[in-house]
Amino acid sequence: MPSNHPPPPSAAPVPSGTGEPDPLLLRHGWDDHWQSTWQTSRQSLPEATGTASPDSGTGPPQPGRVVRTDRGRCDVLTAAGLLHAEVPPALAVDPATAPATGDWTAVSGAGGATARLLAVLPRRNALRRSAVTGSSLGQVLAANVDEVLITVPLDVPLRLARVERLLAIAWASGARPVVVLTKADVVDDPGLELAEVGAAAPGARVRAVSTASGAGLAVLAAELTGTAVLVGPSGAGKSSLANALLGREALAVGAVRAVDGRGRHTSVRRELLPLPGGGALIDTPGLRAVGLPETADGVRRAFADVEELAAACRFGDCGHVGEPGCAVLAAIVDGVLPTRRLDGYRKLLREEARAAARTDQRLRAEQRRHRRSTTREHRRSRREREQERGDG
Ligand SMILES: Nc1nc2c(ncn2[C@@H]2O[C@H](COP(=O)(O)OP(=O)(O)OP(=O)(O)O)[C@@H](O)[C@H]2O)c(=O)[nH]1
Ligand SMILES: [Zn+2]
């Protein structure tokens, strides 16, 4: 676990992957897992053999965590400080493999030299949204996260369908979802909302906080130990919450705000910052329309209560539309399961099926393209061979 102590002013670089872990890296989520991943990964890096020429300005590879990405470049925090590294085009082309905030990487370069990203270490998990174009896997919003903080503002009516969608995406990431009801000061007692949201978030923690009154902040902060990422609609209070949790690190967050094309203030850059009590926090730009990626069992986990009921239906393939012995419809009649929730479940399952079909389509298209280019390749080499024979 990251230590509570601030790093010494001049943290020494990790001595080629051995020895004491660097305190600065520890504060940003470095642990035994990354230590051993690094030991394994660095052996396959060309620079690790020491063949890089000293005047190429690269230097030995060192581990670092991506704290921000920016078209073709990314800011990587290393034991030697922050490096503004160039991303090789081979990694950048696919949004699924391009480095994302939270990724652990191997970088070379120090001091004034141009830093280069050498590799992205295998991800433990990733929070994705559905692919907009190109990639079959979807865009990675944040990598190597332990907790997804889903912010739900209490100053506007609850939108449970949106909470459920974000829960499905969070569960699919492999991280633990935590629903954070924000602006709790605008309601007399958030008990009702806590219960309502709790019923829509089986298996997830639900907390109420207010950055205005400070309520709930200490409890939430104490529960965050690994890397947490903030998601939620614009205006949900993500930045305010990030500032409150980060304390004196907040200034760094303030610096990344800007006005967008419509004159609204929005967070324009992703940032990863250490939390004062240990752990790290990633603040993503407002996720307004979040497409559901292929969530593996994300939807099923977000609707674990419905799944459990369905297991008790008489027929294994029950569609819950009027079959005899349907436990799901019985629960609705009994008032245990809201109709809204069953509808939401079906809607997300359909959406997920469509996302999967799109992926299949893309993969088939990729295969077709590949086959076509190989056929062309074959034809050309045959022509060349025939020509050579003709010439000889
Ligand atoms: N009453 C009250 N208002 C709050 C609280 N937290 C945030 N707000 C207000 O809610 C508005 C939005 O807060 P932000 O923190 O900017 O929201 P955001 O989610 O970061 O928004 P984007 O950057 O657009 O994604 C601001 O006007 C805040 O002052 C709170 O605890 N109580
Ligand atoms: Zn049924």
Automatic annotation (TrEMBL):
GO terms for biological process: ribosomal small subunit biogenesis. Zn(2+) binds at residues 313, 318, 320, 326. Its main location: cytoplasm. Residues 1-12 have a biased composition (Pro residues). Residues 134-290 form the CP-type G domain. GO terms for cellular component: cytoplasm. InterPro entries: G_CP_dom, P-loop_NTPase, Ribosome_biogen_GTPase_RsgA, RsgA_GTPase_dom. Residues 1-69, 355-392 are annotated as: Disordered. Residues 143-288 form the EngC GTPase domain. Residues 367-382 have a biased composition (Basic residues). Its EC number is 3.6.1.-. GTP binds at residues 182-185, 232-240. It comes from the Bacteria. One of several proteins that assist in the late maturation steps of the functional core of the 30S ribosomal subunit. Helps release RbfA from mature subunits. May play a role in the assembly of ribosomal proteins into the subunit. Circularly permuted GTPase that catalyzes slow GTP hydrolysis, GTPase activity is stimulated by the 30S ribosomal subunit. Monomer. Associates with 30S ribosomal subunit, binds 16S rRNA. This is Small ribosomal subunit biogenesis GTPase RsgA. It comes from Kineococcus xinjiangensis. The lineage of its organism: Bacteria, Bacillati, Actinomycetota, Actinomycetes, Kineosporiales.
